[in-house]
Amino acid sequence: MDHITANEIAGLGVGSFLLCATIYAPKVDAFISNSQRSSLGMCKRCGDLRLIACTGCKGTGRVKEGGLLSFNMLDDLYESLGGESTVKTTRCTKCQAKGSFCCPDCSKLRSV
Ligand SMILES: [Zn+2]
Ligand SMILES: [Zn+2]
Prior knowledge:
The protein is mainly α and 112 residues long. The chain contains 3 helices and 4 strands; from the N terminus they run H-E-E-H-E-E-H.
């Protein structure tokens, strides 16, 4: 039991360090950016943009009809090559085609 080699200790240390880094890095990062934002007096949710991009249409205000993912991928490629899209787009109902929402945190704070 006394004969743990330096290599084993180093291996264990590096292994647990990597594990901790993998688990905690995103949390630490989020914590730091949140505290930075609040120390700057910025909104934690949107960073004072007062807008949050719509996840339904990715901020474009329009979504493609049909929802055929594989087909949409080919269509995107076709469009990027200069072709005319064969897929109809429709107004995003999630954001009323605005592409973004008013930040609920900011609108709460600043509507007073
Ligand atoms: Zn939308
Ligand atoms: Zn905000």
